[in-house]
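Please annotate this fold before class:
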Amino acid sequence: MTDFPEETDDRADPGIPRRTAARAAKLASLPLGIAGRAVGGWGRRLTGQSAEEVNANLSAKAAEQLFEVLGTLKGGAMKFGQTLSVFEAAVPDELAAPYRDALTRLQAAAPPMPVRQTRRVLAEQLGRSWETRFREFDDAPTASASIGQVHRGVWHDGREVAVKVQYPGADEALRSDLRQLQRFSRLFQALLPGTEVKPLLAELSARMDEELDYRGEADSQREFAKAFDGDDKVLVPKVVASAPKVLVTEWVTGTPLAKIIAGADAETRNHVGALLAEFHFSSPARAKLLHSDPHPGNFMLLDDGRLAVIDFGAVARLPHGIPRQLGEMTRLALDHRSTELMELLRSSGFIRPGTELSADDVLAYLAPFTEPLANERFHFTRRWMQRQAMRVSDTRGRDFRTGRSLNLPPEYLLIHRVTAGSTGILCQLDAEIPARAIVERWQPGFAD
């Protein structure tokens, strides 16, 4: 006997398109489509349209295609799009608007699985009598993610729960997408100047297996929930049940960060920004973990003023907390102590043996990043982030050459990306926060 009637329709229409050739063709349409529109744009210029009008039209259509392809494919394609969405604050304003809308939509949008397929996954993961574990279960998903979708339900003990169900074929789709996206890394680099696209893709590939096993995510979420239990600033929902492809957690209701970014008042944006920074810097000290998927879809503001954090599929384990050397380097750069900074950078592996660099050039490259800590409060803006992105990506400038000569040791790669991503969200929020006090409290080596 089976819990479900025999059918073939949703077997032919799986949650993630799994045929490698079909997915590759869709991804290949991105550079081809953008190139084709560019040719058409040249034609429209010849007929009298201004360059500004043509470029705006091309950007809007490219952004729409980016959302359509990455969002529809889910898997690694959508995951990459969500990761890019954090860095849209670095894109110049005249190009950013279409991408801002398209990439923000990727944070919470994707076509749902057929109902019968969802129920089949639940039966495989939680047992044939899975429905008896729930008082209620809503077949319509409330949210979609890169490798799964979320349903609302009521557990047998009366608790409201969120049920995350992984798309069938997610593993194949992730591997195929990330290989294909590597081929187009230069295209995405051009679309988002100042963003290190190739390392982002490499990291997503390296952490793929962790994302696919919801049991590991459940373990991480349990550790975070324990560390922040009873906290007056942060709420981490407790895990109710878990399986390799299904995760059940307590349900939380709040205002998504994307909505706050789009239209909240300055006081609310500043409050959320301070909570986000506090969570980012305090987690390694409190939980010995770092939430490593910082995009607005993973955070909500609760009615009681706390920040709710969800989705712990990507987590860095830091048994000794954030390395003390990072705090020391930040302090030395802030204080313009270039000689001591160079010595620490060399001993920590940020400058390879035999690499010749000027201490003043290194300080000039790093010092602007410490600007948020120079005073009691700092206003994170898109304009500030754009300046930093263009400064380090200008191939004609000294900062570009200096940055390319520095080395990022593997153990710092994820910390660096998460900090950059969190900073990107602060700039999207246009938040003014007491960044210095937060870093002084939680970053070892900075204040002592």
Remarks:
- Residues 68 and 102 are 9 Å apart (CA to CA).
- The first helix runs from residue 20 to 46.
- Residues 1-212 form one domain.
